[in-house]
Give the backbone structure.
Amino acid sequence: MKNNILIIGGGPAGLEASAQLQRMGYNVILIEKSPKLGGHLAKWDRLFPDSVPADEVLGSLLRGAEGVKCFTDTDVRAINRLDKSYNVRLTNGITVLSDAVLVASGFDLFDAVKKEEYGYGIYDQVMTNADLEAYFKTGSDPRIEHPGRIGFAHCVGSRDEKAGCRSCSKVCCATAVKQAIEVKQAFPKAEVYCFYMDLRLFGRHYEDIYLKAQKEYGVRFIRGRVAEVSENYDGTLLVKAEDTVAGKPLKVTLDLLVLMAGMRPSASGKAIGDLLEMQVEEDGYFAVRGGIAAGQRSPIPGIFLAGAATGPKTLPETLADARAAAMEVDRYLTEIFPDAKNYKQLVKERW
Amino acid sequence: MVDFGFTLVPSSRINLDLFDKEKYEELVSMEPDVRICMACGSCTAVCTAGKFVHTSLREAMEDIFNAKTDNALESLRACQLCGKCAMVCPRGINTRHLIMSITKVYSKK
Amino acid sequence: MIYEGKQKIWSDYQKDIPDDHYFYVRSCIRQSFFPASEATFLDITRNRLGKDIFETEHHTTCGGIAYHSDTIPQETVMTIIARQFALMAKNGYENYVCSCITSFGLYCETMETWREFPELEAKIRENLWKSCKLEFAKPKFLIHASDLIYKYRNQIAAQAVRKLVNVHTGEPLRVVEHIGCHYSKMFPSKGVGGAEYPYVLVGMIEAWGGEIVDYPERRHCCGFGFRQYFIKGNRGYSLSNTHKKFESMEPFKPDLIITNCPGCPYFLDRWQYVIAESTGKTYGQDGHGIPALTYEEVAGLVMGYDPWDLGLQTHQVSVEPLLDKMGVEYDPAKKYLGKNGKDLGAPAPCACLK
C-alpha cells in the first residue's frame, strides 16, 4: 500500500520534496496557503550568483512535481495524531490521513516598516529587496525613474537584536551584490553603494560576483550599517552611516535606498507548529532532532522539516535539504512505520 | 562680527556628495585595479615607511572614495615605492603603479 | 513623504493620559528662560479647561541638571525624586505631570531602574524615610505637560480665536517640531508617537491648523547637551549642533519652531543670535530668525493671550513677523513693559539679526 505523505508549503522545499517522494512511489499531497505555488521564488526575478531567471528554476521544480496532488489556497485547520499516522483537516474541507508530514513552511521577509529609522512606508524613495525584484520582473515602480545614486542597506532585520532578529539571514549579502550589479546594468551611470557590516559571501561563486561588482561595475562597498535615513526637501534621501574602515561618520544623498530585508520564521508556519505543539528555538525557527547531524526530523515522530522552516537557507541548500528530508521520510516509512509490533521501540531507538 | 569666545566647529563627517567622479574616472583609466581594493590592510601592515612615518595605501584608498583626496596624498607622501605592498596584496593590485597614479591624478589642482 | 505610514507608527505609540487630577511640578530653568509658559499652562488647564492641577511650593529640582553633569550620586537623585513622588501621594494625587523634559526622562529612567532593581528601590524607600519621614509612593501615571496639552489639543482648538494660518495668504503656517531628547529617545514607548516620528507636538499643530514639516535633522539634539554648553570651551559643539539643524531646516522655510523641552527652545532661539552675530547667517525671512516657541506659548497664541503676557518679548528672535502672519494684535510700545507697567528697557540692537 502506498503511504500518504502530507507536505505543507508549496515553495522550493515543498516542491522538491514532493518530486522526490513521488519518484519513490509515495502518494504525496502538497498544500500551499497562497493561490500560487513557488513561494518567494515566484516573486523573484533573477537568482544569485549567476543571475539565472527565477522562472526557469521554478519551472523545473514544478515539472518535477507534476502528478503531485496540489491544493493551493489551502491551510491546515487541525491535526490529530493517531497511533502512528496523522489525521489532518484542511481548510478546503478535505481530511487527509497521512503517515508522515513534512513541514516546509519557509520564511517571511522581515517587515521593514519595523525599522522606523529607515522610513520604509514613509519616505517615498525607500524600497526593499523584494520591491526591487518586483521592479525587475514588471519593469515598473514609481520609485525608480533614472536614479543617479542608489544605496543598498544590508542586514535589515538581520543581526539586529533590538528588532528581535539576532541571526544572519545568510542570503542578503549575495542578493545585495547581485542586485547592485543589476541596477548598474539597468542604470550604467548610477553610483551604487552597499552598506555592510561584514560581507558574508561564503558560497561558491559568491566572491566572484563581489569582485565583478567592484571591478566591472564600480560598486562602492562601505563597511558600516545604515544608521538612519531622512528625506530632503527635494525628496531625495539623506543616509547616515559610519565608514568604520575610515573611522568617521558619513553622509550621502541618495535617490533610492534598497533595504535588504532578512528572513524571519514564517508566521503561517508558526501557526501549524502551534497545532502540532512543535518546539521552536530562541530564534523562532523550528528545532530539529539530533542537532546538526540530523537536520530534517522534528522532535515529533513522523513530522519532518525541510528548507527555511529550520533557519535561513540559500536555494541550493533548501533543495538539498528537501532531498535529504525525502530520504529521511522514506527511511522512516520503510524501517519504522510498518513494524506495528515494535513501532514504539523503534521510534525510541531510531527517531 | 561679535567674538563670543567660541565658534562653529568644523565637521569631521565624510560627505560622499563631494566625491569627484571625474578625477576618479581618470584614476580608473590609469589604474583600473583601484576599484578592487577590499580594505584588508595587508599593504599597510608591511609598509616599510609606515613603521616610522604615517603611510597607508589602505587609508589613502578610503580617503579617495570619501572625497578627502588631500589626506590620501598625505598618506602616500612618505612612500618609498619599495613594492612590499604589491607582494602581499591578495587581489594582486599593482600597488606601486596605483600609488604613482594616485599621486599624478590628485596632485593636479 | 507618505503620511499614512507615519499614522501607522503613531497608532503604535499611544499612551494612557488621564483626563484630570494632576500633581504638577515645575522646571528649574523654564521660569527664567520662558517666564510665562508654566503660568500659561496652569491658566489654560485650570481656568480655561476647568481641570484640577495641584502644585505645591514644597517641591524641588529633580536633580537632573546635576545628574547629567555628573556632579551628584544616582542614589541622591533618586531620593530627591522619591520625595517629589511622596509629596504627590501625600496630597492625594496619583497622576504626576512635570513641566521639564529632563525631569520626565529622569523620572522614567528612575522608575525603570526601580522596576529592574527592586533592592535599589528598597534602599531609596529607606533613604526617604530617614531623611524626610515621608512614605514612599510611585505615580500611577507619569505624564509630561506636553502630553497633557496634546490630550487637550482639540478642546484648546475649540476655544481658539485664531489658527496657525497665515492670514494674508490663507495658507497654514509651516511648523517644525522639536522634541527634547529625553522625552522619548530613551524610552520610545513612553512618548506619544515614539521616538522616530513623535506625534505629541505634531498633534497640536494639526489640531490648531498648522502644517508640520519634517526636515532631515529633526531627530538631532538641539545642542544643549548639558556639559557641552556649561563649559565655555565646549560651547562650540553646542552651537554647531544647533547650526546643523538650522542648515537642514532652512530649505523648508519654516515659520515657527515648536518645542517641548526647557533647553531646546532656549538654544534654538539664542544660538540663532550667536550664529547671526558671528557668521552673518540668518534663517528667517529678511534677516529675521525663526521663532522657537514653547507649546504653551503656541497654545496661548491660538487661544488669544496677549503675546507680551506670554513672555514672547523674552525671546532673542523677534516674534513680530510670526504675530503679523497670524494676525495677532499687539502693542509694540508695550513690548518691554513689566507687569506693573514699568519700562524694563529695550535690549541693545543686534548687528545682524533683525
Remarks:
- Strands of chain B lie at 14-15.
